[in-house]
Specification:
By secondary structure, this protein is of the alpha/beta class. It is 37% helix and 24% strand. β16 and β17 form a beta hairpin. The two termini are 24 Å apart. The mean pLDDT is 94.
Length: 381
């Protein structure tokens, strides 16, 4: 039986002080002041046009990403969140995450953002090493990163996260573990620890830095997981670790193939429509100038996921999670039968990438390490 999954909201704030050389997100270096009032007006109007997709659901989470969302004035953040809550009902314990840079200006306003309704702050530290921060184009230093985490801790938010990269240019295992040790000492309930990858349309892609060799990458990953486990963190997603009970609700809904509305420049949506039996993906106008132009429709483009692509879309999300995947979720959330993907499932089982019980599929440690290999099996069916 097809089910309507939980609903989240993603809000994109596109501006940064400067563009980082590794970043392939839809972000734009500030050339003047952030148009605080005009952009919040546009976001709320954008959401109004998407209310048809709510279909009677309550919001289970809100995630405000960027760019640098903490560049938005706290009073406008409050107006934005109040406006969202007035338009869509929400769960009693609504998780509202805001990404923030650890620079002094942004971190100095954490308390104001909390008063505006933010319950969880994700701090983009990336590294605590000065030379690595310079290479990554970050505008904060290690002391600002440490102070920002301490401020988040003192506010007694529902949770906070530290974003940390590993496998940086010229990084050795001891360097990566040093960064991780510093992050663990700051005791964030949640730690996103992910490998630097070179993406198209970035400065690093046109002028690639020299990254560690594969054997060093493997050693960093193994040693890092061991250190995080010893510190009481549980891995629940490929690059996400949390203390028990502090997994990011928004991320879980993404990876469990839940629905999400996306508002703001370049924001993406994924919406299930039970009446049509289709899953709709959408993307909003990318550039702030176009997005703020009242003559241009926010909805840049939208498309239905083709039936033959549904299995890959489902497993691409679901197999990022460490938790077992209920077999019933495949037909319930996609409308396709298990028998239609039985061949690639058997192949993945034979290769030791997943295991299967009467009720669940479970990604193995081998499958986690070689996730692309696992997904390619479904891509080639």
């Amino acid at each position: 039986m097809r089910l309507l999954p939980p609903l989240s909201l993603y809000i994109h704030i596109p501006w940064c002080v400067q563009k980082c050389p590794y970043c392939d997100f839809n972000s734009h270096a500030l050339k003047s002041e952030v148009p605080h009032v005009a952009y919040v007006d546009a976001l709320l109007e954008d959401l109004k046009q998407d209310l048809i997709h709510v279909q009677g659901r309550k919001l289970c989470s809100i995630f405000i990403g960027g760019g640098t969302p903490s560049l938005l004035e706290p009073r406008q953040m409050k107006r934005l969140l109040d406006g969202v809550k007035a338009l869509i009902p929400s769960d009693d314990k609504l998780e509202i995450t805001m990404e923030a840079n650890p620079g002094t200006v942004e971190s100095g306003r954490f308390a104001q953002f909390q008063a505006a309704g933010i319950t969880r702050i994700s701090i983009g530290v990336q590294s605590f090493q000065s030379d690595k921060l310079i290479i990554l184009g970050r505008i904060h230093d290690s002391n600002e990163a440490i102070n920002a985490a301490k401020q988040a801790q003192e506010l007694e938010l529902d949770s906070f996260n530290i974003d940390l990269m590993h496998s940086l240019p010229a990084q050795q295992v001891t360097d990566a573990l040093g960064d991780l040790k510093q992050a663990i000492e700051l005791a964030p309930p949640h730690l996103s620890w992910y490998q630097l990858t070179i993406e198209p349309n970035t400065q690093f892609h046109s002028k690639p830095p020299r990254l560690p060799e594969d054997d060093i990458l493997a050693d960093i990953y193994d040693a890092g997981r061991e250190a995080l486990t010893a510190a009481g963190y549980q891995q629940y997603e490929i690059s996400a670790f949390a203390k028990p009970g502090f997994q990011c609700h928004h991320n879980l809904n993404y990876w469990r193939f839940g629905d999400y509305l996306g508002i703001g420049c370049g924001a993406h949506s994924k919406i299930t429509n039970l009446e049509s039996g289709k899953i709709l993906r959408g993307e909003k106008v990318k550039h702030p100038k176009g997005y703020l132009d009242p003559e241009i429709d926010y909805r840049y483009k939208s498309w239905h996921i083709e039936t033959e692509d549904l299995a890959l879309e489902f497993f691409m999300n679901r197999f990022r999670l460490v938790e077992p995947c209920p077999r019933r979720d495949l037909p319930n959330l996609t409308g396709i039968s298990e028998s239609s993907v039985r061949a690639p499932l058997e192949q993945a089982i034979t290769k030791g990438l997943i295991t299967e019980s009467t009720t669940h599929w479970q990604v193995t440690p081998l499958g986690q390490r070689f996730l692309n290999t696992l997904l390619n099996i479904f891509m080639e069916q």
